[in-house]
Amino acid sequence: MKLQVFVRSAAWLETAGTRIRYQRLQSELARLGCACAIDPISSVREGLKLGADVYLFSKCHDAGALMMADMLREAGALVGFDLFDDYISGQESLTFGQRAFQRGLRGRVDFMLCSTPQMALAARAYDQTTPVHVLNDPVEPFAPGDLARLLQAKLDRARTTRRLDVVWFGQAGNPLFPVGLSDLIAFGDRLGGLARAGWQLQLQVLTNDNGLDPETLAGLRQLPVPVELRNWSLDRERAALQQAALAFIPVNYQPFSTAKSLNRAVTALSHGAQVLSPGYELYADLDPFIYADEEDLSRDLDKGILRLRPETTGALTETFSRIADPAAEAVAFVSFLNGLPPGSVQRPVRQRRLRAILHGAETVPATGGLCRALGWLSLASPYCALVRPFHAAVALLSGRPEPVVVLTKEAIARLTPQARRQLTPLNSTEAAGYSHCLPLPAGEAGQRLAGLSPAMVQAGPLRAMTYRAIMAATEAVFLDLFGDMIIVWSELEPHLVMAQEPGDAEA
Amino acid sequence: MSLIRSLADRYLPHRRKQAAKHAAIRAVIGQSPLFDAAWYVERYPDIAAAGVDPLDHFIMSGAAEGRHPSAAFDLKWYLRRNPDVARSGGNPLLHYLENGRHEGRSIRGVGTDTAIDDIAVRPAKASKARQDKAADTPAYPSDYKSEWTAGPTRWSGLAADDRPVASFRPILAGRDVATWASAPGVPASGNRRAHVFFQAWDSADRPGFQALAELRQPGLGLAGLADAWFADRSRLLVRLPPAAGPGERVRAFQPDDEGRIWVCADALLPPEVPACVAIAMQAQLAPVLILREDANGDCLDSAVLAFPSLLRGGLHHAEWHAVASQVGDQTMEGYMLALLDGLCAETGPLLVGGIAVPCAGASGSERIFQRGLLRELGGFFGIATRLADAPAAGPLAQLAGKLGCPTPDMAMAARRAGGLDLEVPADAVPSLACLASPRQGYSVSSALYCEADALSGKPLALVEVPALPEPCASLNHPALPPALLRPAMIPDRIPPRPAMIRFRDARIWQVDVLQPLSPDVPLPLPSGEEQTSRVTVVVHAEGNPDHLGTCLRALDRQYGTWRLDIVLLGDADCRDRALHLATGRAQVIGAHEHLAEAGPQLRETAAGSDFVVFLSSQVCLQDPRSLLAMAAVAKVPGVASASCSLMQCTDEPGSIPDGHSGQPVYEICAMGDTVGPKAREMLQLFPATVVPVSMNTARLAMFASERLAKPGAGGTAPRTLDDWLDAAAERGGRHACLTLVRAIHLGGPAMAASDAGHSTEGAALSGPVAIRRLGR
After folding, report:
1. 3-state class of B617 per DSSP?
2. Which helix (H) or strand (E) holds A454?
3. Mean residue pLDDT across chain A
4. Which pick of A202, A466, B471, B714 has the fewest CB atoms within 10 Å?
């Protein structure tokens, strides 16, 4: 079996998510005869062959990925999406786009992957039919003997000096939810409890600087322990955990946090750090090794018998083998894939339909390249402000009373014979990149587009009110000109993603 | 550690050199009027929050970060103008003071355009006015001569045998506290406070706060402290006058929630210079006793911080800001005594017996859920906290299970028996005024609360929201913390004190600027009625004629089963244009030039309608739920008219960005009769709710038709919208404005000016929302 994982970009290959979730599985999958490749989705533009049996899209939330999924299923492959974080449960947040995308997945994928059962529940609330598999984040292999020695050394040092090196690591924040450093600040009083018990704490915070606004910094300064703030890197994280007696991992109770994977605690424990995790009991599976209460930790420190100690490393290994063992996770994943019902029936190449992406007001520019690489049409709606030439566009040209459809030569080759007969050439100055134009068809959609005014295209209430109708009319016009094809709208502007007609909501 | 550091400073050559250099720079900059510590911490609140010495901060890092030392010295301008100084990497102010001014280099004030060549022309920092003010203004530690004398002290139990505290061994060894406190030759007040404090917690019956009632006579002794603030959540810095003699010490004591007293500071005071002493706090809600003793251990003076959380950086600091802004001449000591007065009153139980927190919008990381605070509320005030509507399963059910807080058997616990349950949003904590009020004679208003930043605790605003009728107040966003407080209490004294402090986190309160109610969330309003509602819409065509089409199109898109009869007011061109506009449910049934002309038709149409709406053609009801939401409010008994806030496109800096690229930036241009800067603040305060206003805007108002059954005085047809608004108000109604849905104002910025002319006299039973910005 060949498994192809597509990540959002080349930079994404370096992220913790990719490293923990896929790279740690690769060798185990290979042992099971499953060759797993991880590439950015853009590599398709650069000639990556699409010959895998299973495709997994990771954090690719755009029309290009959706269309590609559809195309790969048509070619007989199994296609799934890995849902990393819960952006879809909280209805009060501005994650309209994520929720709309999640709804858009219904019926378009063969399976979904989640990292926790909680996330699987969130996904099932949107789609009760598509199979969901919980793929736990695998642990990095470690030597139990080394871990035992490290634990003893850390305990001895803490008891001798009464000093506890504490580490917090992770993303500084999230523009949509109060997580990350907000949790550290909110639950930081628990560290004060250890200080009151006579332990001298030094907190090292390893994070990125994106969320470090003045309020957050002021909040960090109010923590009851000295704080050292450092930029996160994988090496620093490893070094800090190797040194620290304690990893502080508070978790709040909002859906985004309660659906998180266990990887932070797993990483900390496997590096010999005790874990103090107040708040939501996200790490219940690791309960025998985790402290929720600083008083318990202080008591155990005084006694010299910690929950994670040389004698319990065996139990930790056993627990990891249940919930985070790469081999076990690989087996479970492959079994899940093998157990899936057969995907869509492979359609012969000649019967495959033409595909097009219709770009809205805000779109992913790279999708154009994907369209060219895969033979799809890239079509621009009147809202699209990108200068990149598309195959065709509905445009208001100066000097013309109403909008026209402008086309490139590639698009002309795919026009219906009737439409081709109406082509008129464009002046070279009229629309850069396009060679010909067509009048709007005479039907209802054409009439609607003919009534287009600049106010409807500019950002504002009129655009929001007419967006859906104009996009639908644009789609109808293109269908009229190119004949039968599959069109997916590419829209990242949240207001417009959610733009509804009254009838939609009432239904 | 501090001892090691101090020894290292003294004996390691390079450390000694560094320390000497730092002291020399302090001397040069600290004595200059170009460094203004008060201004510095005011401009850079993170420094105040951090509790670091501003002068040290400026020398060590502030200058390198480009921070200005005072309003009189624009550091960045000085560096730009003197690239040689910038290249040197040295402290620009130090350069100016040591070299630049002698070389004739100029400086410039922050935010001014004029360079100043001679600083002597400006008033010196220590002017007479400044000196006169000094008595009232808390000094900052960096006023040149301050000196840090003690690092944080580790907590040590006063009565713990295994960790005896040397300085208090004599007391524990049998020296009676009362005898000691009344020893001859020492000021009686200091002894008295110490005696009362120890009696309150260290005696067998532990009367707690109630024993502190005795302090109302001699006062709390705060006058002896120059300033006090929280460096962090468990470190209180107190600034004290210089020692009068050698060997003078300062000690601090605090009870924990189980009544044990802990020593939390112990430091020698330096002679001649004021000292900053760090107190390691057990709890923010527990009183602190600070003693000054001479070399013999006799008490010279004392102070009790009865409610330390009011201090800068404390949990209730916003409350103190609010009270100080409400009643200008109130001192911190006066306020603490007033709170003690309420807490110790012999008038039955306390007002609040328990705290109920609704789940809406709760993430579990809010301050009200912090375990330390829960324990303190139980231990010091006998108040338990619970989730008001805990779900049976899920994460919040787990949180509910963790809230149960047994109340220790303290005197306060007995007084809570008759108390009420106070419902507070998850992002709030009760004010001290609320916690300390007796049930009888309280002066707390549930409609008055303070706003503070969730992360930094910085005070933001004091908000007064008159309570609406319950059905109206319940129209909140179903997933956000309740925006209006439930009317649990009614103030009976003036001025009332705030009931709570709300710690606002913009990420929880975020809503779409144009559609504050998420399109995913079912509208929390009565669903569409079975029968078609008939609405008469009076559209006043004005401004850009193209906007009329947008306005009518938006009307046609409204959810619900409406029959919309449109009566158009405007000139002939407008009327012609409107008649040609093809609409669905919205039908133009008449067109007139003025409202007075339309009177007879309106009276007739309105009589057969369920609602009447006045709408400017400049207003677009973009959100299709607008009419449904306004109708739900308009039908509430006691509501005269309903409107919603209007948003206007702007390029003004500081307006509300919506966070999405490609969308214009909006500012609020009108909400009822409240316009201008206040309205913008209101939008931030009430992302999705209903607020009472004194008059609704002439651009958008909806009436339930039965409120209009009796037109203006004399039975004549209304000639202006004001007539209609007055008539509705006369029938016993309030005007309500929604932020649950928002309309868009398509026109220019004339809205504020035109609405400002509204007469509000006698129009409403309750005034509009009042907001007072807090800040130093």
Report:
1. coil
2. helix A454-457
3. 89
4. B714
d(CA B94, CA B653): 35
Amino acid at B463: V
End-to-end alpha carbon distance in chain B: 35
How far apart, in whole angstroms, are the C-alpha atoms of residue B306 and residue B196? Answer: 12
Per CB-CB distance under 8 Å, the chain B contacts of A183 are 365
DSSP β-bridge partners for residue A379? A358, A392
Total residue count of chain A as it appears in this document: 507
Number of CB pairs, chain A paired with chain B, less than 8 A apart: 189
Q: Would an 8 Å CB–CB cutoff place A84 in contact with chain B? A: no
Task: Evaluate whether B262 touches B157 at the Cβ level (below 8 Å).
Answer: yes
Q: CA–CA separation, B122 vs B36, rounded Å? A: 13
Separation between Cα atoms, residue B464 and residue B599, nearest integer Å: 38
Answer whether B454 touches A (CB < 8 Å). Answer: yes
What residues of A are in contact with residue B47 (Cβ under 8 Å)? none
Cβ–Cβ < 8 Å for A258, A121:
no
What pLDDT was estimated at residue B11?
56
Nearest CA to B28 out of B64, B69, B65 is that of B69
Rounded to two decimals, what is the model's pTM? 0.81
CA distance A232 to B145: 40
| B759-769 core/surface letters (b: 16 or more CB in 10 A; e: else) | ebeebbeeebb
- pLDDT tens for B377-400 read 888 888 888 998 888 888 999 999
Question: Closest Cα partner for A468 from A496, A443, A445?
Answer: A496
What is the dihedral sign for C-alpha B705, B706, B707, B710?
A: positive
8 Å CB contact between A491 and A363: yes
- Best probe of the B interface among A88, A92, A254, A465, by most B CBs < 10 A, is A92
Beta-carbon contacts of residue B541 (< 8 Å; ≥ 6 apart): B548, B568, B569, B570, B571, B574, B575, B577, B578, B617
Would the CB atoms of A462 and B557 count as touching at under 8 Å?
no
> How far from chain centre, in Å, is Cα B459?
4
List CB contacts of A417: < 8 A, sequence separation 6 or more: none
Q: Is the dihedral of CA B52, B54, B57, B59 positive or negative?
A: negative
Distance, in Å, from the CA atom of B757 to the CA atom of B508, rounded to the nearest integer, reads 36
Q: At what angle do helices A294-303 and A189-196 cross, to 10 degrees?
A: 30
Whether the ω angle into residue B687 lies within 30 degrees of 0, i.e. cis, is no
Least confident of B131-135, B702-706, B709-713: B131-135
Which residues, listed in sequence order, are joined to residue B743 by a DSSP beta bridge? B646
